Amino acid sequence: MLKKFIFPTLIFLFLAPSFAYAVDFSISDVKIDAYLQENGDIDVNERHTYIFDGKFNGITREIFPKKGAEISGFMANEGETSLKVEKEGELYKVHRSGKDETIQVDLYTIKNGMEKYADITEFYWPFFDDRNEADYGKMTIAIHPPQPADGI
C-alpha cells in the first residue's frame, strides 16, 4: 500500500510546474507632466523610477481611459533608447531586462481627454486609481494649459 502512495506522489512532484518568484522592486519617484492641447488631446510624459532587486524582464503600466477617450502613441523610452511595448487590453508591457539596478522609463498621448464647453474646458483624468497595485514613493503631477491664463 505504501508503494502505491509514494510512486504517484513522486511523479506529481516531478511533473508539477516550478514556482516563479516575484521580483522585488519599488517605484521611488514618479513625475507626470500633462500638456493640454487646444484640440482636447493631452500629451503626457510619465517618468517612473524603478529600483529592482533581482532579475527582471520589464515593467507594466495599466491605463484605464475614461469614456470617450483613448490612449494613442504609447511609447516607452529609457534615455534615448526606445523600448519594445506590447499591449494587452489596458495593460502595456514594456520589455527591458536587467538585474539589481535602477531604471527610468518615460511613457503617451490621451486622445479626447478633455470636455470642452462654451465657457470652460474640463480636464479629469485618473492617472492612478484603486486598480493600481504598486506603491509609489514621491509622485508629482503637473498640468500644463495650452497657453497662460490671464486675470486669475
Topology:
Blueprint: H1 2-15, E1 24-36, E2 42-53, E3 55-62, E4 70-72, E5 76-78, E6 81-88, E7 91-99, E8 102-106, E9 109-111, E10 114-116, E11 121-123, E12 136-144
Parallel strand pairs: 1-12
Antiparallel strand pairs: 1-2, 2-8, 2-9, 3-7, 4-9, 5-6, 6-7, 10-11
Describe, in plain words, how this protein is organized in 3D:
Helix content is 9%, strand content 52%. The chain has 152 residues and is mainly β. The strands form 3 sheets. Strands 1, 2, 4, 8, 9 and 12 form a 6-stranded mixed β-sheet that branches. Strands 3-7-6-5 form a 4-stranded antiparallel β-sheet, with no helix packed on it. A hairpin with a 5-residue loop joins β1 (24-36) and β2. It is elongated, with a radius of gyration of 22 Å. Mean pLDDT is 80; it is low at 2-21.
Concise summary:
The chain is mostly beta strands and 152 residues long.
Structural class: mainly beta
User: How many individual β-strands?
Assistant: 12
Total DSSP helices: 1
Sheet with the most strands, sense and barrel status? 6 strands, mixed
Low-confidence residue ranges: 2-21
State mean pLDDT (0 to 100 scale): 80
Measured between the Cα atoms of the first and last residue, the distance is: 86 Å
Strand percentage = over 45%
Return the string of H and E elements.
HEEEEEEEEEEEE
Rg value: 22 Å
Helix fraction bin: under 10%
> Any idea what the shape is?
elongated
